Amino acid sequence: MTWRRGYTYSTSVKIAEGVTLPTIDAGCSCVGACIDPRICACAKLNGSDFPYVHKDGGRLIEAKSVVFECGPNCQCGSGCVNRTSQKGLKYRLEVYRTPNKGWAVRSWDFIPAGAPICEYTGTLMRTNDVDNVSGNDYIFDIDCLQTMKGLDGRESRPGVVPHMDDRTDDKKTENVPEFCIDAGTIGGVARFINHSCEPNLFVQCVLSSHRDIKLARVMLFAADNIPPLQELTYDYGYALDSVTGPDGMIKVLPCHCGAKDCRKRLY
């Protein structure tokens, strides 16, 4: 489906030229569905537990540093609860126009806390290849590693990632994500979701086919029970004075989220 101004809707991530995805993980040997976390290889990566419960088709119990899901080489079926984020859109989402924030997204359905909403899709590319002069506001840095470490004011989350290459010890690169998702010309409904200083969604890094956190899938989950027709929002996570223009000057963008404790600036 092609929208106006050259935008193409896509529910999957496209891979830019020059980017190679890691080898697909061996996966678990569970048959039918993953039930016992003591023997499921994927559950062991999640601290020997499953991150989801079966209720409402699968709900994330809590926000984690990273969620390891079952993938292409796992022996369990598509109905396994540990594939919750891979099952596509479950709720009727509407993109609509707002008076002062441009496009926005809401659901026609009630959404329970912990439910997966959508994946941030677009073109997966190296951050260094992004054209910073084009004015593209739909770049999502895959900064899961920074979130794990609680860098740049991020709130640390539970969960330990085993066998990780701890590259954040390099002070020159710890604040610079290597990869990003560019939804400027191609992407899904997530790119229309606005920022809020008091959001009802949260960003969750998910690994399902490989185990490289730098190339994790970016999912949005419900932080609270969300009634029908309430705008869906998440915190974009900008640090103040962190965005500069082509001239090197700090850019300032007012925030119009309307939250009680609004920070007044997006960046």
From TrEMBL:
Domain SET: 91-237
GO cellular-component term (any): nucleus
Organism: Coptis chinensis
Lineage: Eukaryota, Viridiplantae, Streptophyta, Embryophyta, Tracheophyta
Post-SET domain sequence ranges: 251-267
Domain Pre-SET per the UniProt entry, residue ranges: 26-88
Localization annotation: Chromosome
Entry protein name: Histone-lysine N-methyltransferase, H3 lysine-9 specific SUVH4
UniProt cross-references to PROSITE patterns, sorted A to Z: POST_SET (PS50868), PRE_SET (PS50867), SET (PS50280)
Record GO terms (molecular function): double-stranded DNA binding; histone methyltransferase activity; zinc ion binding
